[in-house]
Amino acid sequence: MNKFTIPAIGFAALAFVEPAFAQEAAEAAAEAPDPAAAVSGGTTYIFNTLLFLMGGFLVMWMAAGFAMLEAGLVRSKNVSMQCLKNIGLYSIAGIMFWVLGYNIAYGVGEGGWLSSTWGPYAMQGVGEADTGTGYSVASDWFFQMVFCATTASIVSGTVAERVKIWPFFIFTVVLTGVIYPIVVSWEWGAGALDAMGFSDFAGSTLVHSTGGWAALAGALIIGARLGRYGSDGKVNVFPGSNIPLATLGTFILWLGWFGFNGASQLAMGTIGDVSDVSKIFVNTNMAAAAGVVVAIIGTQILYKKIDVTMALNGALAGLVSITAEPLTPSVPEALFIGGIGGLIVVLAVPLLDKLKIDDVVGAIPVHLLAGIWGTLIVPLTNTEVPFMAQLTGVAAVGVFAFGASAIVWMALKYTIGVRPDEEHEMSGMDHTEVGVEAYPEFART
Q1: Is residue 72 situated within a structural domain?
Q2: Domain count, the chain
Q3: Which residue, 110, 242, 313, 328, shows the most beta carbons closer than 10 Å to its own?
Q4: Which residues contact 203 (CB under 8 A, 6 or more apart)?
Q5: Which CATH number belongs to the domain containing residue 294 in this structure?
Q6: Nearest-5° angle of CA 11, CA 12, CA 13?
Q7: Could you tell me if residue 25 is inside a domain?
Q8: What is the pLDDT of residues 297-319, one digit of tens each?
Q9: What pTM does this model have?
Q10: 37 domain residue, yes or no
Q11: Which domain holds residue 65?
Protein backbone atom coordinates (compact mmCIF):
# COMPACT_ATOMS: atom_id res chain seq x y z
CA MET A 1 0.00 0.00 0.00
CA ASN A 2 1.64 3.26 -1.09
CA LYS A 3 1.35 6.69 0.48
CA PHE A 4 -1.62 7.62 -1.73
CA THR A 5 -3.73 4.57 -0.87
CA ILE A 6 -5.13 5.70 2.53
CA PRO A 7 -6.23 9.17 1.31
CA ALA A 8 -7.78 7.52 -1.74
CA ILE A 9 -9.77 5.12 0.42
CA GLY A 10 -10.83 8.03 2.64
CA PHE A 11 -12.10 10.08 -0.28
CA ALA A 12 -13.89 7.07 -1.71
CA ALA A 13 -15.61 6.41 1.59
CA LEU A 14 -16.54 10.07 1.84
CA ALA A 15 -18.12 9.90 -1.60
CA PHE A 16 -20.52 7.25 -0.30
CA VAL A 17 -21.10 8.82 3.15
CA GLU A 18 -21.66 12.42 2.06
CA PRO A 19 -24.95 11.75 0.22
CA ALA A 20 -26.20 9.88 3.28
CA PHE A 21 -25.36 12.84 5.52
CA ALA A 22 -26.99 15.22 3.06
CA GLN A 23 -30.13 13.08 2.95
CA GLU A 24 -30.33 12.94 6.76
CA ALA A 25 -29.86 16.70 7.01
CA ALA A 26 -32.60 17.27 4.45
CA GLU A 27 -34.95 14.95 6.32
CA ALA A 28 -34.17 16.68 9.63
CA ALA A 29 -34.82 20.09 8.08
CA ALA A 30 -38.11 18.85 6.69
CA GLU A 31 -39.13 17.56 10.09
CA ALA A 32 -38.06 20.71 11.98
CA PRO A 33 -41.05 22.73 13.17
CA ASP A 34 -41.82 26.05 11.52
CA PRO A 35 -40.88 28.86 13.98
CA ALA A 36 -44.01 30.75 12.92
CA ALA A 37 -46.33 27.76 13.34
CA ALA A 38 -48.60 28.12 16.35
CA VAL A 39 -49.82 25.35 18.59
CA SER A 40 -53.55 24.65 18.80
CA GLY A 41 -55.90 27.47 19.80
CA GLY A 42 -56.45 26.22 23.33
CA THR A 43 -52.76 25.63 23.93
CA THR A 44 -51.87 29.06 22.53
CA TYR A 45 -54.44 30.57 24.87
CA ILE A 46 -52.84 28.82 27.83
CA PHE A 47 -49.26 29.78 26.93
CA ASN A 48 -50.10 33.41 26.17
CA THR A 49 -52.09 33.75 29.37
CA LEU A 50 -49.28 32.15 31.34
CA LEU A 51 -46.81 34.65 29.88
CA PHE A 52 -49.05 37.56 30.93
CA LEU A 53 -49.46 36.17 34.44
CA MET A 54 -45.78 35.35 34.97
CA GLY A 55 -44.71 38.69 33.55
CA GLY A 56 -47.36 40.41 35.63
CA PHE A 57 -46.29 38.99 38.96
CA LEU A 58 -42.65 39.78 38.16
CA VAL A 59 -43.58 43.40 37.44
CA MET A 60 -45.70 43.44 40.60
CA TRP A 61 -42.56 42.32 42.47
CA MET A 62 -40.88 45.47 41.17
CA ALA A 63 -43.12 47.38 43.60
CA ALA A 64 -41.11 45.73 46.37
CA GLY A 65 -37.92 46.73 44.56
CA PHE A 66 -38.95 50.38 44.40
CA ALA A 67 -39.95 50.30 48.08
CA MET A 68 -36.61 48.83 49.18
CA LEU A 69 -34.57 51.10 46.91
CA GLU A 70 -36.30 54.21 48.21
CA ALA A 71 -36.24 53.04 51.83
CA GLY A 72 -32.50 52.55 51.54
CA LEU A 73 -31.76 55.90 49.90
CA VAL A 74 -33.80 58.17 52.19
CA ARG A 75 -32.71 59.15 55.68
CA SER A 76 -33.72 56.91 58.59
CA LYS A 77 -36.38 59.38 59.77
CA ASN A 78 -38.35 58.95 56.51
CA VAL A 79 -38.15 55.20 55.83
CA SER A 80 -41.61 54.23 57.10
CA MET A 81 -43.11 57.01 55.03
CA GLN A 82 -41.57 55.61 51.84
CA CYS A 83 -42.81 52.11 52.65
CA LEU A 84 -46.31 53.46 53.25
CA LYS A 85 -46.25 55.49 50.03
CA ASN A 86 -45.22 52.48 47.97
CA ILE A 87 -47.80 50.03 49.25
CA GLY A 88 -50.40 52.78 49.06
CA LEU A 89 -49.60 53.85 45.50
CA TYR A 90 -49.62 50.25 44.27
CA SER A 91 -53.08 49.74 45.73
CA ILE A 92 -54.41 53.04 44.40
CA ALA A 93 -53.04 52.27 40.94
CA GLY A 94 -54.80 48.90 40.90
CA ILE A 95 -58.15 50.43 41.82
CA MET A 96 -57.85 53.43 39.49
CA PHE A 97 -56.76 51.31 36.55
CA TRP A 98 -59.99 49.37 36.94
CA VAL A 99 -62.19 52.41 37.64
CA LEU A 100 -60.88 54.50 34.72
CA GLY A 101 -57.44 53.61 33.44
CA TYR A 102 -57.88 50.51 31.31
CA ASN A 103 -60.82 51.81 29.31
CA ILE A 104 -59.08 55.13 28.72
CA ALA A 105 -55.90 53.37 27.59
CA TYR A 106 -57.63 50.99 25.20
CA GLY A 107 -60.82 52.87 24.31
CA VAL A 108 -59.28 55.46 22.00
CA GLY A 109 -60.25 55.31 18.33
CA GLU A 110 -57.59 54.30 15.83
CA GLY A 111 -55.25 57.25 15.34
CA GLY A 112 -57.03 59.26 18.04
CA TRP A 113 -55.81 61.36 20.96
CA LEU A 114 -58.52 60.83 23.57
CA SER A 115 -60.63 57.84 24.55
CA SER A 116 -64.40 58.00 24.37
CA THR A 117 -64.71 55.29 27.02
CA TRP A 118 -64.58 56.50 30.62
CA GLY A 119 -65.72 54.20 33.38
CA PRO A 120 -64.99 50.90 35.11
CA TYR A 121 -63.55 48.05 33.06
CA ALA A 122 -66.13 45.27 32.95
CA MET A 123 -63.67 42.49 32.04
CA GLN A 124 -66.11 40.74 29.74
CA GLY A 125 -65.21 37.11 29.26
CA VAL A 126 -63.61 36.60 32.68
CA GLY A 127 -63.96 32.95 33.58
CA GLU A 128 -64.68 31.96 30.00
CA ALA A 129 -62.05 30.26 27.82
CA ASP A 130 -62.57 32.56 24.83
CA THR A 131 -59.70 31.31 22.68
CA GLY A 132 -60.53 33.89 20.02
CA THR A 133 -58.70 36.58 22.02
CA GLY A 134 -55.59 34.41 22.33
CA TYR A 135 -55.29 35.11 26.07
CA SER A 136 -57.35 35.52 29.21
CA VAL A 137 -58.93 38.97 29.48
CA ALA A 138 -58.15 39.16 33.18
CA SER A 139 -54.49 38.28 32.60
CA ASP A 140 -54.20 41.16 30.13
CA TRP A 141 -55.77 43.60 32.59
CA PHE A 142 -53.44 42.46 35.37
CA PHE A 143 -50.34 42.75 33.19
CA GLN A 144 -51.27 46.27 32.08
CA MET A 145 -52.18 47.34 35.62
CA VAL A 146 -48.79 46.58 37.13
CA PHE A 147 -47.16 48.81 34.51
CA CYS A 148 -49.45 51.61 35.65
CA ALA A 149 -48.26 51.18 39.26
CA THR A 150 -44.63 51.36 38.13
CA THR A 151 -45.21 54.88 36.80
CA ALA A 152 -46.34 56.12 40.21
CA SER A 153 -43.40 54.45 41.97
CA ILE A 154 -41.02 56.63 39.96
CA VAL A 155 -42.59 59.81 41.35
CA SER A 156 -42.44 58.57 44.93
CA GLY A 157 -38.65 58.42 45.03
CA THR A 158 -37.99 61.83 43.52
CA VAL A 159 -40.24 63.84 45.87
CA ALA A 160 -39.37 61.85 48.99
CA GLU A 161 -38.82 63.41 52.42
CA ARG A 162 -40.87 66.61 51.91
CA VAL A 163 -44.35 65.64 50.71
CA LYS A 164 -47.33 64.92 52.91
CA ILE A 165 -49.01 61.58 52.43
CA TRP A 166 -52.52 62.62 51.34
CA PRO A 167 -51.47 65.11 48.65
CA PHE A 168 -49.17 62.42 47.25
CA PHE A 169 -51.98 59.87 47.23
CA ILE A 170 -54.33 62.34 45.51
CA PHE A 171 -51.69 62.97 42.84
CA THR A 172 -51.35 59.20 42.41
CA VAL A 173 -55.10 58.91 41.80
CA VAL A 174 -54.90 61.38 38.90
CA LEU A 175 -51.64 60.00 37.51
CA THR A 176 -52.74 56.36 37.43
CA GLY A 177 -56.39 56.97 36.60
CA VAL A 178 -56.03 59.61 33.87
CA ILE A 179 -52.56 60.88 32.90
CA TYR A 180 -50.78 57.57 32.38
CA PRO A 181 -53.73 55.87 30.60
CA ILE A 182 -54.05 58.75 28.12
CA VAL A 183 -50.35 58.47 27.26
CA VAL A 184 -50.66 54.70 26.84
CA SER A 185 -53.64 55.09 24.54
CA TRP A 186 -51.55 57.03 22.01
CA GLU A 187 -49.35 54.01 21.26
CA TRP A 188 -50.41 50.74 22.87
CA GLY A 189 -54.07 51.69 22.42
CA ALA A 190 -53.51 52.24 18.66
CA GLY A 191 -53.88 56.00 19.01
CA ALA A 192 -52.23 58.94 17.28
CA LEU A 193 -48.57 58.09 17.96
CA ASP A 194 -49.04 54.51 16.82
CA ALA A 195 -50.49 55.80 13.55
CA MET A 196 -47.33 57.89 13.04
CA GLY A 197 -45.11 54.81 13.37
CA PHE A 198 -43.94 55.53 16.94
CA SER A 199 -42.64 52.42 18.69
CA ASP A 200 -42.10 51.79 22.40
CA PHE A 201 -41.89 48.03 22.95
CA ALA A 202 -42.23 47.94 26.75
CA GLY A 203 -42.42 51.56 27.85
CA SER A 204 -39.19 53.58 27.98
CA THR A 205 -41.35 56.62 27.23
CA LEU A 206 -44.90 55.50 27.95
CA VAL A 207 -44.07 54.23 31.44
CA HIS A 208 -40.68 55.53 32.53
CA SER A 209 -40.54 58.95 30.94
CA THR A 210 -44.16 59.60 31.92
CA GLY A 211 -43.24 58.89 35.53
CA GLY A 212 -40.06 60.94 35.10
CA TRP A 213 -41.94 63.97 33.75
CA ALA A 214 -44.43 63.76 36.63
CA ALA A 215 -41.52 63.52 39.08
CA LEU A 216 -39.74 66.51 37.53
CA ALA A 217 -42.90 68.63 37.77
CA GLY A 218 -43.22 67.67 41.41
CA ALA A 219 -39.59 68.39 42.23
CA LEU A 220 -39.79 71.86 40.65
CA ILE A 221 -43.10 72.89 42.23
CA ILE A 222 -42.54 71.38 45.67
CA GLY A 223 -38.92 72.50 45.93
CA ALA A 224 -35.87 70.96 47.54
CA ARG A 225 -35.58 69.44 50.98
CA LEU A 226 -34.69 71.84 53.76
CA GLY A 227 -30.94 72.34 53.94
CA ARG A 228 -30.18 70.50 50.73
CA TYR A 229 -28.72 73.55 48.98
CA GLY A 230 -26.80 76.20 50.84
CA SER A 231 -27.01 79.92 50.08
CA ASP A 232 -23.38 79.77 48.95
CA GLY A 233 -24.23 77.18 46.30
CA LYS A 234 -22.95 74.25 48.34
CA VAL A 235 -24.75 70.94 47.93
CA ASN A 236 -25.23 69.24 51.28
CA VAL A 237 -25.13 65.46 51.05
CA PHE A 238 -27.90 63.55 52.82
CA PRO A 239 -26.64 59.93 52.97
CA GLY A 240 -29.15 57.14 52.60
CA SER A 241 -30.10 55.08 55.62
CA ASN A 242 -29.35 51.60 54.29
CA ILE A 243 -27.23 50.86 51.23
CA PRO A 244 -27.67 47.05 51.50
CA LEU A 245 -31.44 47.59 51.37
CA ALA A 246 -31.10 49.84 48.31
CA THR A 247 -28.91 47.20 46.66
CA LEU A 248 -31.51 44.52 47.35
CA GLY A 249 -34.15 46.80 45.85
CA THR A 250 -32.05 47.19 42.70
CA PHE A 251 -31.66 43.44 42.27
CA ILE A 252 -35.41 42.96 42.78
CA LEU A 253 -36.08 45.55 40.08
CA TRP A 254 -33.54 43.87 37.79
CA LEU A 255 -35.31 40.54 38.25
CA GLY A 256 -38.74 42.07 37.72
CA TRP A 257 -37.58 43.67 34.49
CA PHE A 258 -37.44 40.27 32.79
CA GLY A 259 -41.22 40.21 33.18
CA PHE A 260 -41.48 43.86 32.20
CA ASN A 261 -39.66 43.41 28.89
CA GLY A 262 -39.99 39.70 28.24
CA ALA A 263 -43.73 39.45 28.67
CA SER A 264 -44.20 42.53 26.49
CA GLN A 265 -43.72 40.12 23.60
CA LEU A 266 -47.40 39.44 24.41
CA ALA A 267 -47.33 35.96 22.91
CA MET A 268 -45.81 32.58 23.68
CA GLY A 269 -47.75 30.34 21.30
CA THR A 270 -45.05 29.78 18.69
CA ILE A 271 -41.40 28.73 18.67
CA GLY A 272 -40.55 32.15 17.27
CA ASP A 273 -42.29 33.93 20.16
CA VAL A 274 -40.50 31.89 22.81
CA SER A 275 -37.18 32.45 21.04
CA ASP A 276 -37.87 36.19 20.99
CA VAL A 277 -38.66 36.21 24.71
CA SER A 278 -35.34 34.52 25.46
CA LYS A 279 -33.47 37.05 23.32
CA ILE A 280 -35.24 39.87 25.16
CA PHE A 281 -34.06 38.38 28.46
CA VAL A 282 -30.46 38.38 27.27
CA ASN A 283 -30.53 41.93 25.93
CA THR A 284 -32.26 43.20 29.05
CA ASN A 285 -29.64 41.63 31.28
CA MET A 286 -26.69 42.81 29.21
CA ALA A 287 -27.93 46.41 29.02
CA ALA A 288 -28.23 46.53 32.80
CA ALA A 289 -24.76 45.06 33.24
CA ALA A 290 -23.29 47.64 30.88
CA GLY A 291 -25.01 50.43 32.80
CA VAL A 292 -23.39 49.26 36.02
CA VAL A 293 -19.90 48.95 34.54
CA VAL A 294 -20.03 52.38 32.89
CA ALA A 295 -21.28 53.98 36.12
CA ILE A 296 -18.46 52.34 38.08
CA ILE A 297 -15.80 53.48 35.63
CA GLY A 298 -17.36 56.94 35.30
CA THR A 299 -17.47 57.67 39.03
CA GLN A 300 -13.94 56.34 39.48
CA ILE A 301 -12.68 58.76 36.82
CA LEU A 302 -14.71 61.77 38.00
CA TYR A 303 -14.55 61.37 41.77
CA LYS A 304 -11.56 59.04 42.29
CA LYS A 305 -13.90 56.76 44.22
CA ILE A 306 -16.72 54.51 43.11
CA ASP A 307 -20.19 55.70 44.15
CA VAL A 308 -22.31 52.64 44.91
CA THR A 309 -25.57 54.58 44.49
CA MET A 310 -24.45 55.54 40.98
CA ALA A 311 -23.75 51.88 40.22
CA LEU A 312 -27.25 50.95 41.38
CA ASN A 313 -28.81 53.65 39.26
CA GLY A 314 -26.54 52.67 36.37
CA ALA A 315 -28.20 49.26 36.34
CA LEU A 316 -31.66 50.81 36.34
CA ALA A 317 -30.75 53.32 33.62
CA GLY A 318 -29.45 50.49 31.45
CA LEU A 319 -32.73 48.65 31.97
CA VAL A 320 -34.83 51.71 31.13
CA SER A 321 -32.73 52.40 28.02
CA ILE A 322 -33.25 48.93 26.51
CA THR A 323 -36.97 48.84 27.34
CA ALA A 324 -38.07 50.75 24.22
CA GLU A 325 -36.64 48.01 21.96
CA PRO A 326 -35.21 44.93 23.69
CA LEU A 327 -35.73 42.51 20.80
CA THR A 328 -33.96 43.80 17.69
CA PRO A 329 -30.52 44.77 19.10
CA SER A 330 -27.58 42.39 18.98
CA VAL A 331 -25.76 41.85 22.27
CA PRO A 332 -23.06 44.45 21.44
CA GLU A 333 -25.81 46.93 20.55
CA ALA A 334 -27.61 46.17 23.83
CA LEU A 335 -24.35 46.77 25.71
CA PHE A 336 -23.96 50.12 23.94
CA ILE A 337 -27.54 51.22 24.64
CA GLY A 338 -27.36 50.24 28.30
CA GLY A 339 -23.87 51.69 28.73
CA ILE A 340 -25.00 55.11 27.52
CA GLY A 341 -27.84 54.89 30.03
CA GLY A 342 -25.28 54.42 32.80
CA LEU A 343 -23.28 57.38 31.50
CA ILE A 344 -26.40 59.55 31.53
CA VAL A 345 -26.79 58.89 35.25
CA VAL A 346 -23.18 59.78 36.03
CA LEU A 347 -23.44 63.08 34.15
CA ALA A 348 -27.03 64.08 34.96
CA VAL A 349 -27.12 63.58 38.74
CA PRO A 350 -24.58 66.35 39.47
CA LEU A 351 -26.22 68.52 36.78
CA LEU A 352 -29.54 68.38 38.63
CA ASP A 353 -27.80 69.51 41.81
CA LYS A 354 -26.30 72.45 39.94
CA LEU A 355 -29.82 73.37 38.86
CA LYS A 356 -31.02 72.85 42.46
CA ILE A 357 -33.48 70.18 41.44
CA ASP A 358 -33.65 67.82 44.41
CA ASP A 359 -34.19 64.25 43.21
CA VAL A 360 -33.70 62.04 46.24
CA VAL A 361 -33.16 58.70 44.47
CA GLY A 362 -32.01 59.85 41.02
CA ALA A 363 -35.24 58.86 39.29
CA ILE A 364 -35.20 61.75 36.81
CA PRO A 365 -31.88 60.72 35.17
CA VAL A 366 -32.78 57.03 35.36
CA HIS A 367 -36.37 57.07 34.14
CA LEU A 368 -36.84 60.34 32.27
CA LEU A 369 -33.50 60.94 30.58
CA ALA A 370 -32.56 57.30 29.98
CA GLY A 371 -36.12 56.71 28.82
CA ILE A 372 -35.77 59.45 26.21
CA TRP A 373 -32.42 58.05 25.11
CA GLY A 374 -33.78 54.52 24.79
CA THR A 375 -36.74 55.72 22.74
CA LEU A 376 -34.73 57.84 20.34
CA ILE A 377 -32.16 55.10 19.68
CA VAL A 378 -34.77 52.54 18.57
CA PRO A 379 -34.26 53.22 14.82
CA LEU A 380 -30.62 52.19 15.17
CA THR A 381 -31.64 48.56 15.52
CA ASN A 382 -35.18 48.63 14.17
CA THR A 383 -34.92 50.37 10.83
CA GLU A 384 -38.67 50.16 10.23
CA VAL A 385 -39.22 52.81 12.91
CA PRO A 386 -38.86 56.43 11.69
CA PHE A 387 -36.75 58.68 13.89
CA MET A 388 -39.16 61.61 13.54
CA ALA A 389 -41.96 59.47 14.91
CA GLN A 390 -39.82 58.68 17.96
CA LEU A 391 -38.94 62.35 18.43
CA THR A 392 -42.59 63.35 18.08
CA GLY A 393 -43.62 60.76 20.63
CA VAL A 394 -41.04 61.88 23.16
CA ALA A 395 -42.10 65.52 22.73
CA ALA A 396 -45.84 64.81 22.89
CA VAL A 397 -45.55 62.69 26.02
CA GLY A 398 -43.24 65.26 27.61
CA VAL A 399 -45.56 68.21 26.99
CA PHE A 400 -48.66 66.37 28.17
CA ALA A 401 -47.24 64.44 31.13
CA PHE A 402 -45.24 67.37 32.48
CA GLY A 403 -48.02 69.89 31.86
CA ALA A 404 -50.82 67.80 33.34
CA SER A 405 -48.69 66.80 36.34
CA ALA A 406 -47.68 70.42 36.96
CA ILE A 407 -51.34 71.47 37.00
CA VAL A 408 -52.19 68.79 39.57
CA TRP A 409 -49.19 69.60 41.77
CA MET A 410 -49.99 73.33 41.62
CA ALA A 411 -53.63 72.70 42.48
CA LEU A 412 -52.61 70.63 45.48
CA LYS A 413 -50.02 73.18 46.58
CA TYR A 414 -52.48 76.07 46.64
CA THR A 415 -55.43 74.19 48.11
CA ILE A 416 -54.64 71.57 50.72
CA GLY A 417 -50.88 72.14 50.64
CA VAL A 418 -48.18 69.66 49.74
CA ARG A 419 -45.32 70.16 52.18
CA PRO A 420 -45.31 69.78 55.95
CA ASP A 421 -44.16 72.77 57.99
CA GLU A 422 -40.42 73.13 58.61
CA GLU A 423 -40.51 71.67 62.11
CA HIS A 424 -42.31 68.54 60.95
CA GLU A 425 -40.04 68.11 57.94
CA MET A 426 -36.95 68.35 60.12
CA SER A 427 -38.43 65.87 62.61
CA GLY A 428 -39.01 63.38 59.84
CA MET A 429 -42.10 62.14 58.05
CA ASP A 430 -42.15 58.88 60.02
CA HIS A 431 -42.77 60.80 63.23
CA THR A 432 -45.20 63.40 61.93
CA GLU A 433 -47.11 61.62 59.16
CA VAL A 434 -46.94 57.89 59.80
CA GLY A 435 -46.62 57.55 63.55
CA VAL A 436 -44.43 54.46 63.23
CA GLU A 437 -40.71 55.04 62.96
CA ALA A 438 -38.63 52.54 60.99
CA TYR A 439 -35.60 52.85 63.27
CA PRO A 440 -36.94 54.12 66.63
CA GLU A 441 -33.68 53.32 68.43
CA PHE A 442 -31.77 55.84 66.30
CA ALA A 443 -31.79 59.57 66.82
CA ARG A 444 -33.43 61.57 64.03
CA THR A 445 -30.83 63.15 61.72
Answers
A1: yes
A2: 1
A3: 313
A4: 147, 260, 264, 323, 324
A5: 1.10.3430.10
A6: 90
A7: no
A8: 999 999 999 999 999 999 999 99
A9: 0.88
A10: no
A11: 46-109+145-434
